Amino acid sequence: MRHLVTLHDLESSEILEIFALVQELKDKRNVGERPQLLQGRTMTQVFEKPSLRTRLSFESAMWELGGGASFFTCKEAGLDGRESIEDVARVVGRYSDIVTLRTFSHELIETFSQNSEASVINALSDLSHPCQALTDLFTMQEILGDLSQQKLVYVGDGNNVAYSLANCCAKLGIPFVVSSPEGFELSSKLVSNLKQQFPSAQLELEADPQKAVAGATVIYTDVWASMGQEAETEKRKKIFADYQINSNLMAAAAKNCRLMHCLPAKRGLEVTDEVLDSKQSIVFEQAENRKHLAKGLLVWLMQQA
What we know:
Order of helices and strands: HEHEHHEHEHEHEHEHEHHEHH
Distance between the termini: 4 Å
Strand content: 5-15%
Number of strands: 9
Radius of gyration: 19 Å
Shape: globular
Structural class: alpha/beta
Number of helices: 13
Largest sheet: 5 strands, parallel
Helix content: 40-55%
């Protein structure tokens, strides 16, 4: 049995195995084939944070693969203090083949996975968003080709998405630059750990977004205030004003540079409508691939059982 709590749970070769499986299943779906590879399997989703893409991608993936899915809020599952995390994990794990968790606390997911008899997938925590990063790099490979020839530049808050992208890029040898205002950089401890684990990783922090995007084949951004940070929205608007993805910043990157965003987007803040709706944007291809990535990941995890 395998879990995906962070990307440290996957070897580089395993990420590529998953990508190959994702592409195979997507190609089959495009010609009307939906192999029932998980018939009789069950997935339980337990979410503390609301979701559109995460919940729908996993549920539709499981149904297309022939399995079934149940959904609970953390309160409904008893993770609001009604029961211990360990007890809930032991029960849910006995009812399920796979459990997906979307929470604030990363420690909750770690504790759950340590007590679950089912494979646990981190569908988002405040530390890590591994399924998003896997989707993003799969999308880059699908649309742009050889990942080693790409340069991915993340502009914005050094959050869980930025960390997961840094981790995935380090594993796959992709140049990755993070551009954030002072005080909002990717954690220096996380950067140090990644560089120790992957000495050849091309990971760079550059505060100036104009310098950061030079030569970029993909520019990536996320909201400036994530879920749980709403009280900081007005403050962050001022701090991040120079980090907006607009036509001027896109022009400073490589020719035909693509835009990625994990959504939901705050149009007119971190990205302009002009760029988000342009031909350079692959944001909605990226969003669609959340389902295809979920299918490949679910099948791969069950193959490891």
